[in-house]
Amino acid sequence: MSESKPSRNEDEYFVKQDAELIKEQRTRLDAERGRAERRSHYMKCPKCGADLVETEFHHMKIDKCPECHGLWLDKGELEMLEHVDQSAIRGFVRSMFGLKF
Ligand SMILES: [Zn+2]
Q1: pTM of the prediction?
Q2: Torsional sign, CA 54, 55, 60, 63
Q3: What is the per-residue pLDDT across 6-49, written as a single tens digit (0 to 9) for each?
Q4: What is the Å distance from ligand 1's center to 43 Cα?
Q5: How far is the CA of 13 from the centre of ligand 1 (A)?
């Protein structure tokens, strides 16, 4: 009877240690999966998944989707558009969407 207690404690110790190791490994795998997931989405259209094409306009790098024609602006670029000449923006939008107006 007196010997069962320390050995059970030992078992609990190893069970706990195994659980820690499994948890650690799962965290590592989740992180790796997250990174792979992000890599696979890099420069992909958030709407249709096509490869985005980088287009330069007034020192801005605008990412355009050739499939659904969505546009992606980086942080601060929308504010920068305010300082661009209206007719230039109109011309750019026209060329982006192939509009004739
Ligand atoms: Zn798209």
Answers
A1: 0.60
A2: negative
A3: 678 888 998 999 999 999 999 999 999 999 999 999 999 999 99
A4: 11
A5: 53
Tally Cβ neighbours within 10 Å of residue 93.
13
Query: Which letter, b or e, does each residue of 29-61 get, where b requires 16 or more Cβ atoms within 10 Å of its Cβ?
Result: eeeeeeeeeeeeeeeebeeeeeebeeeebeebe
Whose tokens are 């078992």? That residue is 11
| Ligand 1 is an ion; residues with CB less than 5 A from it | 45, 47-48, 50, 65, 67-68, 70
What confidence score (pLDDT) does residue 57 get? Answer: 85
pLDDT of residue 6: 60
Cα 46 to averaged position of ligand 1 atoms, centre (Å): 7
Residue with tokens 């980088």: 54
CA 34 to ligand 1 centroid distance, Å = 22
- Contact 76/86 with Cβ under 8 angstroms? no
- Alpha-carbon span 8 to 5, nearest angstrom: 5
